[in-house]
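Hey, can you fold this?
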Amino acid sequence: MFQVRNKEAIRLLTGRQMKKNRQRNAIAIGAIILTSILFSALFTVGGGILEVARQSMMRASGSSAQAVIKFLSMPEYENVKAAGGYEKIGYSIVTGTGAHESLQKLYTEVRYGETYSAQSFRSFPTEGRMPEEKMEIAVPRLVLDAMGLPDQPGSRIVFPIMVDGTLREDTFTLCGVWDGDPVAPAQQVWVSKAYSEEIAPTRMTSFGEGVPYEGTVMADIDFPNTWNLQGKLADLLARAGLPEDTPGGINPAYSSLSVDLYTILTIVILLAVILVSGYLIIYNIFYISVTQDIQYYGLLKTIGASGKQLRRIVLRQAMGLSAVGIPAGLLAGYAVGYLLLPYVVMLFLQTYEFEDYTISPAVLAGAALFSLLTVYISFRSPGRIAASVSPVEAVRYTGETQQKGAPGRCRKSIWQCVEAHRSILWKRKAHIKMMRKKKTSTLGFGKSAKQKNAPAILALRNLRRDGKKAVLVILSLFLSMTLLNTTYTIISGFDLEQYVETQTNGDFEVTDWTVAMAGQYDKNLEGIDSGFEEAVSRLQGLTRFEKVYCELGQADLSEHALERLAWENEQGNEYTDMCDLERGQEPLYAYAATGTLVEHAVYTDGEFDAEKWAQGTYVVYCDGAPWWGVKPEMLYQPGDRITLEGKEGQKKEYTVMAVGELPSTLTARMAISIGINVILPEQEFAELYGEKQPLSVVYDVEKSHRDEAEKITAKWMEDSGMVCISFETLKEEFQKTKQVFTMIGGSLSLVLGAIGILNFINIMVTGILTRQKELAMLSAVGMGGRQMKRMLIWESAAYIGSASVLAVTAGNLLSWLICQDVVIRNQWAFAYHFTVVPVAVCLPLLLLAASAVPLVFYKKLCAGSVVERLRYC
């Protein structure tokens, strides 16, 4: 047999076939669009999270440069610059620090810097310019506002600068301003090169002991790409003749940006769900398309088309539909992802402010690749069916699947299907009785009571005729219903009151901003002044007022603890450097809590005994930080003796009552590497460390006065350097979290639901079209229109009912497994409750669709007479 090898003929056949099936193509394009929406939204959100995380780390580190080399002399910097191998390089010279009293909580550095260096510090003027004349200065608004200075370029300001212990107060002309970033570790103030050289001459010798910090050169470097930055920096140092341990390194935004296992699994699961959901509908469309046109492919094979050419025809159809659906889906998905990004960031990164996310071409390229991969996977099996069909089987093909156990038999003919329907609809005796009563058609489809269940039985048998197709539709609907059910379960399981109890220890919890600020190392351990305590005591409805004290101190190591730390030191654990092993001491954070706070600490070993605690000879102990070495047990156990050293060098021995710690919001929120935490009775703390102001305070107010207390406390926070966690702030955070889950889960459920419904509509419509000859013959032999409609409705309802049963059973089991996540259960005070509410709400709508779809398309199918339908099918 001759094979047609003309590619132009293949292209022409593909085009004509697509024009012939416009309605089916529209459904396929819709499916591809929905799948692409899911992929592009996921990639947009995922890329946005990584970008926001990187931006956050850049803000925390204070620089966007990929690498920095610190404390250079100018000749050393020139060697680095001459070594090459980078894309951009610039330098800044440390001149001094801001010395105004209002800048105590806003660390400010004064430097001279090149344009690139200022940009990498994210401190480049947005109004005005960098200093050029000797007495010009560029200052962020954050610093100007703190000092009470004008922020208009051209203003004359006095700016005090501390240079190597010497205070200078010079008058400058403000030449540039920008907003400043409160998250940055230091605010940058730029001065001119001439002024910097005058007060802090650039160092010409290597930095070392006795060399002041001022005048040193800091190099900021960007490489052509982010691959192996550590190796590139090491090579640059070697070419410049600098030692490997030269201070500096890679920006944490590039070296430490990592995604935890939970996030990776979440992304993988989402990708898998989208891939499966898209595959279910796209595969089903191509599968039905190929089976409906199987006679066409058989005829092509008869005239010489090879199996490979038939696969190419199906593939060209798939790629043609993808060329329309994927771009539209990418654009829509990017818009959806961009809208969802702020909510996802709140969930994963615990931050509510971030810069606008600029789309990366790689994000849309990745989404397009996955969408195309889904289409390609979906087309392969139908393509094989088209390629492997024999011309003889194609002519007799009616959509029936091969019967198991009879591999050599041909598929059933339409007349055999009609005979099967007739055997169900009536029995021989009923037929004879009906023929006697009244004349009917030859096959006698009547309306007796015995036949009232026939449409339902026929519908179930029709589902069994192609179980694979039925499973695909049911799974598609099941996925969307399960996701919606899971989202509702999570949202309804959040408990506000319980959440507030887990996140705070009272109605109001106040501490200094340095304690609450993540990444802030200079903690104010006495941030609550006496004036604030007095003000709180005058609040109406005050029912409780408790304090927490904190001090950084030392503990004498026991023999066992000393042996353990010495072993860690031998293993090369550099964190033991914090311990003075020669003197046998270890750093610690000592706490004291008044009232009942210590009773509500989290205990992991031993028990708290209030009577023994009152004796003043017991402490609660906890290791201060995780160890990087092997840690089979705590350094101290309940019953061990521990000696603490006081502020004046006095020492006192205590017994460890239990292993535990205060809630994190009541601590300094800092851990000492290989250090410890202890909780002391209040009197013992005062004897060791003297009278101190509290680290934080907790107070409760009667419910009737809570709103008034909220307003008063908020006013106090505005006028001080303190921050407060209260019922209202936690309530707002709680509502935002619920909104996040609602937006993400609801959006994903909506799109998956659309895919499921579209898949359902597609299989019902194509099922009717595929079986139009069979339906016409059933009408010809006497099956009434009402019976046929009931049969089609029962088929639709069977899909919906099966998916609903699965969603209530297996879907709820899957929801329960998802809700076992530790973050959801612990952080958000979640309690699982079995529910069928989402399924119950969706079921009437789906059943309505199950009735409407077959009726509408059956009506169109029956527009012509039975004779015409039999002639042209």
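Oh, and this one too while you're at it.
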Amino acid sequence: MEQQPTKINNYQEDDVNFRQLFEQYAYYWKWFVVSLILIMGIAIVYLRYAQKNYNTTAKILLKDEKSASAGELAGIAELTNSMGLGGTRSAFVTDQIQVLSSRRLMRKVVDKHNLNVVYAVKGNIRTSEVLEKDMPFIVENFGNQDSTKYKIRITIKSSDRLEITNLVSGEKISTKFNEKIKIGKYLVIFRRNITNRIDNNAEYVVNVIPKDWAVDANLNAINISPSKEMQSYIVNFSMISTLGKKSELVLNSLIEAYNEDLTNDKSRTTRATSDFINKRLMIISKDLSGADAEAADFKSANSMVDMATEASVFLSTASDNDKKVLEYRTQLQLVDHMNDYLKRQEIGKLLPSNIGLQDASIVSSISEYNKIVLERDDLLKSASNQNPAVIALNEQIAESDNNIRQSLKNYQKVTQLALNSIEQKSNEIRGRINSIPSQEQGFKKISRQQQIVESLYLLLLQKREESEVKAAATPDNLKVIDAAYGNGVPVSPRKSVILVGALIFGFLFPFLIIYLKFLLDNKIHSRKDIEDIVKIPVLGEIPTAEDTIVHLNDRSSLAEAFRILRTNMNFMFGADKKEASKVVFVTSTISGEGKSFVTTNLAQILSMSGKKVLLIGADIRSPKVLDYLGLSHLQHTNVGITQFLINPDMDVDNIIIKKPGNYDFDVVYSGYIAPNPAELLMNGHFDDVIKYAREHYDYILVDTAPVSLVTDTLLIAHNADLTLYVSRVNYLDKRLLQVPRELYVDGKLKNLAAVVNDVDFARGYGYGYGYGYGYGDKGKKKTGIAKVWEDLKDRLNIK
């Protein structure tokens, strides 16, 4: 609970410090306004006339015909690329980028568009580059142009007259269009470009450089980079130039030159392949003709048409005959089995049917026989063997059995004859087949050579057609994703960056100047300097004022400051001094800090409160008290402290000037300047003056000498109840604050407290509270932030 007030105080102190810092710089707000206007104006003028650079981009997709690998090797390559271990694709793209950025290709672009000749239009402020096609004339150089180098200015005098100025030698030449002239050691002709209009008195600058320089300049301006994807075949182009159209022309021409270069390489390969194939075809066609003739002779000698076909026919026929032989032999065996069955079987028993015999009459007879037998067996169930019907059926059975036997004999004979015929034909075919291998062996030697020559011939014909088709098709080796394009927005100088930078610099420039001013300024500027170094309480801050004395009923900031000082002084006296008279010494480090000013005004304020006040001018080396009071004439009619110290028998009351002028306090001025002031103060008689004053006055204010220059103040310091140490801002060197610091630490000055004088609150060195309020401040100038705000409102017409 006890720490809470401390935290609040710390917060308040930080807030005050921030405001103090702000006010320090806000005092110079006009510097910031002027700096911002000046630097922003310079930035706008720079943007208006500065040479602008434009970025042009293009994008292409390469085609790698060798990358169409298949199978496991392709999978391994893909896996390698996906793992970031590199691969054929990245290597291919890198190689092609090297080709694209080669001097050889750029040289083709330079030669095609004469990029070694730089044209520019001369303006009032700057010169702007233009393309050759936009010029009213074209410069044509003769001889070896690789090392040509000159710079000229062309002024168009009329539709056919030109004035040439050599900017290197200063030589002037008058010429006409299409007239050959000599510039330096180079022959030049100016061709009229009828597509563009001529402006009389227009000036142009033509700078011709060696082609190698043009190649290097354009290559340095181009950036060629692969896509970020490892497996991508995309290549990005970018070029920064002062002329966007020129960048587009260069990039598109470079891509075109690269495509033509690859196409020419493929065309050369295709032509070489075609020449090789044609030569081989002439040789192989002769070998093929010889192999065909040899095959024809062999077939004629062996009565062969087509050995493969004949062998296939023979084999097929032999197979069919073998099937028939098997079939006939099967039928004969079935007939034998049927005959054996009939021999073992009695007449009148059922016979097997559908046993595979192919003779339809035998099958029908067996079926009819079985039918009669079944009919007889049914009849015997109700009749005897003697039944006429049974007898008739037995006779039919016997007759049918005889017919079946006879049919089997006939079928057996016919089948045997057919089998013998088929076997004879099969033997003939087997003989023919057996003779084929020996003929085939001889023919295969001829056919094999014929097939080899023929397949090679056909392959070469196919390759020649493929080569011709490929040469005729001539597909592009790349795909243009984006042709060269510039959006017309300059990349440098960038307007937003320049304006923001100018705004920042316009603010920082005066800030840095002021910061350096503060940094190099070793003067004290606020009470904080005293509190940090001397570490004594500051009882008041006296503002800068035009008046040197506070007037009666004064409500100015100066009067209020001294009233605050009067109030704060009372807290410095002990309890035993509340009702007793108080002796206040006022001193400073060096002269000119306003200790006499503070003493006189403090006496005036104290007397206004009804106190009896005595003002003693104890600075007997440089008296100023009467001067501040405007009573300088009294020093000629009155004696001072010096006379008393010399003659202590004098009554103290004789040196007191009673309420001089319009002032309500008494004064003891310093008197004549003595040659030995320190010795006078040491004689102890000054204590008599203080003793007398304590008996008759409430406040005794003593204006003493500066402590860093003389020892006068220290000699009489024991008489003080309170010592006010006056320090003037923007006047006292901070290093001299060690003087009051040492006096405070050593206790040489009693009850030491500080008063900061000549504080300009408009500068923000103080806390910016301002002094005075009510009727007394009407018409007064405002200070600090209030002053800045009022000035801004006046300039912006803000009510």
